Amino acid sequence: MSQIIIILIVANVLVSIKGFNDAVFFDRYKFQIQKILGGEKTRMLSSGFLHVDWLHLGFNMYALYLFGKVVNSNLGTVNFLLIYFASLLSGSMYSLYQHKQTLYYSAVGASGAVSGIIFSSIMLYPDMELIMLPIPVPIPGYIFGVGYLLYSIYGMKNQVGNIGHSAHLGGAIGGYLITLVLRPSVITNHTIMVGIMALIILGLFFFGDKLKLNK
Prior knowledge:
Blueprint: H1 3-21, H2 23-29, E1 31-32, H3 33-37, H4 43-46, H5 54-75, H6 77-98, E2 106-107, H7 111-124, E3 129-130, E4 139-140, H8 141-158, H9 165-182, H10 185-189, H11 191-207
């Protein structure tokens, strides 16, 4: 496993453990709309290293381990870090946009960054086989990617579960766009997949506000 992936996992574990045991620390660095709008912009980054519990942390770090090595080995460490942190910030920015009227909204987790890494790996290897729970059948990566986008939009608009769907969606879009910039050959090699995802993303931005967002 790449050294940089180990460093990111260790950083997430250490910060999360601190948050598990120190409520003041957790509250100071979590994503919270009111505080961010009040000027505490660092929360948009720091919240990506906090998690609510060991299961939340473990799931994100396992996904980072699985997909991170694909992105790092193909695009290099610098580009891997670019995708990771840009996706983290794009997830936070999209969450801020979607919930800006809900001042009490808060969230934590590396899900935005990890979603960007997952999408980057799918863009690089769309035929990889993945499992989308609860369906225990391997499906091609590009089908997983389309399903992930659609479910995240549905989950965000209907607030399904205690999940930051907007961060997932923003991070995935970040990973998608940055990978296209870094590896434009993906567009010619997998035109249909890139086009379908582009239509979903454009539809979200042009018509997303017309969808009901439950409070």
